Amino acid sequence: MKLILYSKPGCHLCEGLQEKLEQMQTLKLNLEIRDITTREDWFEAYQYEIPVLCQQLSEGEKPLPRFSPRTSVTKLEQMLQKYLAP
């Protein structure tokens, strides 16, 4: 399962979500971190929204619902299982 995390350096919400995604045990994810400051189109799209988590599908990217920064690793894992397309 490939996920894309749109982020930027120094964003504590982004760092927190990335840390939780890396701690998950049940779901095996291929996580790609995209720094929105490296491309103008990413910056324009996500500057006020980060962190943004998307699932990479063959037909493109599917944005996932925004998760609360207080969501535990276990709860995040359960929510991702619900939202990720097979």
TrEMBL record:
InterPro entries: Glutaredoxin-like, Glutaredoxin-like_YDR286C, Thioredoxin-like_sf. It comes from the Bacteria. Pfam families: Glrx-like (PF05768). This is Glutaredoxin-like domain. It comes from Aphanothece sacrum FPU1. The lineage of its organism: Bacteria, Bacillati, Cyanobacteriota, Cyanophyceae, Oscillatoriophycideae.
